[in-house]
Design goal:
445 residues, alpha+beta, Nuclear Transport Factor 2, Chain: A, 3 domains, globular
């Protein structure tokens, strides 16, 4: 038995060594070289056989910020660049040099209150600023590299344009409908511009409804603005109004389903969004003079300072104070039509007799000068020298889709119309009552 054991012992030892070497051969081979796995913004680096994980460098404005103390804030009222930087050990001499060098890139005197800025400071007790980044708006930024020699450059956050849709039924106003549906209320102004020649948005009624396909501008998934409205459909009573955006040879306008331009020779109203407080009338009790007399205009109630727009191209023939009309502008559009704008608080810069204006130009601001009981615009229209009601006359249209673009337009229009038709109106919406505690549930998508 001992002889047999002595014979088997060397054989078992050889077998054991073979097993060990074979097992090591099938194990994965590790080295000290790092392997990088990209996971969105959270990059991880695996080091030494996966036993240790460290975060990849964090970036802000294209700068590695791991070795800095990051301070984010907003510019305070009456705060200057020197006050911001001097607090973080940047000398006044360096700030003066920075301001002079920056002049052709960004004038530091244009730094405004409530705008965002970021400081990248040394990660020690001194907190010395190494970078200063100022954001004049939500997209652009200016980087001031304060290390060694000053380096100044501009950049932009990556911007995404996302197509979105909305369908709503009006209970009180377009603005309220959009707000209740968590849609951007800025769409009010877009729709007002698009339908300025077809729909009097001051006469919106409960039950009117609309659909819209629009572009939203986003930075890191956050909305920062609106792009174009691509298509819209407005329904009121038995009337239907389509609007489709189309670039007709470098001229981007809105057209209906038949290719007719929505743009007219005149805007329906000289204010973007307000309400009519008094209509055109042959007999009205004057609130100041206390007598019955014709009111050959349309009064739009609006806050003092609201911008007033020229309803059409033309030449300013009057721009002066005229007693009862207060600060008054009159525009001759052609040999047939003229318009007047009364009770302004002031004229827009550059508006004077002989000035040529274009449709939509700001010509002044709502006020209460002259015979007026409160801030409003009295808007008047003359046709061949006689006063007419702008809201009741048929306005000539601008150029329709040209024949050479018609086929392309029809393809684009049909695509957009299909998308609009697929949008369902909500069965109900949240409608805010005047009392905050009294919410009426009418449903929402």
């Amino acid at each position: 038995m001992k002889k047999l054991f002595a014979l088997l012992l060397p054989i078992c030892a050889v077998a054991a060594l073979y097993y060990v070497f074979s097992f090591n051969a099938i194990l994965p081979s590790y080295s000290s070289t790092a392997t990088v796995a990209s996971v969105d913004t959270a990059q991880m680096v695996t080091v030494e056989a996966g036993l240790q994980e460290v975060a990849a460098p964090s970036l802000m404005y294209g700068i590695k910020v791991d070795s800095f103390e990051v301070i984010e804030a907003k510019v305070e009222t009456n705060q200057f660049l020197s006050q911001i930087l001097n607090k973080y050990n940047v000398s006044l001499a360096m700030i003066d040099k920075l301001a002079k060098k920056s002049r052709d890139i960004f004038d530091v005197r244009k730094i405004r209150a409530s705008k965002n800025y970021t400081l990248l400071c040394s990660a020690d007790s001194s907190l010395t600023a190494k970078y200063f980044i100022y954001e004049p708006n939500q997209i652009d930024y200016v980087v001031y590299d304060l290390q060694d020699s000053i380096d100044i450059y501009t950049g932009q956050h990556p911007v995404d344009t996302v197509t979105k849709t909305f369908a709503g039924i009006i209970d009180y106003s377009i603005y309220q409908t959009l707000e209740d549906g968590n849609a951007p209320t800025d769409l009010v102004h877009k729709l007002s511009d698009i339908y300025a020649w077809q729909i009097d948005l001051f006469k919106i009624q409960k039950g009117d409804r609309f659909k819209v396909i629009y572009q939203e501008v986003q930075i890191q998934g956050k909305r920062v603005g609106l792009g174009k409205v691509l298509a819209a459909h407005f329904e009121r009573s038995n009337e239907s109004y389509y609007a489709f955006n189309f670039d007709q040879g470098g001229r981007n306008f809105y057209f209906d389903e038949d290719g007719n331009s929505l743009r007219k020779a005149f805007l329906k109203a000289p204010l973007k969004y307000s309400r009519i407080s008094s209509k055109f009338s042959n007999q009205r009790f004057h609130p100041v003079l206390k007598v019955n007399r014709p009111h050959y205009g349309i009064d739009y109630a609006a806050p003092v300072g609201t911008a007033i727009h020229a309803v059409g191209d033309g030449i300013v023939t009057h721009a002066r104070y005229t007693g009862g009309a207060g600060n008054y502008v009159k525009i001759r559009h052609n040999g047939v039509y003229s318009t007047g704008y009364m009770h302004m608080t002031k004229f827009a810069k550059g508006i004077h007799s002989g000035k040529r204006v274009k449709q939509g130009d700001v010509i002044g601001y709502v006020g209460t000068t002259g015979l007026s009981t409160g801030p409003h615009l009295c808007f008047r229209t003359w046709k061949n020298g006689k006063p007419v009601d702008m809201l009741s006359i048929d306005l000539p249209a601008s150029e329709p889709i040209q024949d050479k673009f018609r086929k392309e337009y029809l393809v684009s229009m049909n695509t957009m119309m299909d998308q609009l038709n697929q949008l369902a109106y909500p069965e109900s919406q949240f409608v805010l009552a005047e009392a905050k505690t009294n919410l009426k549930l009418v449903g929402i998508n």
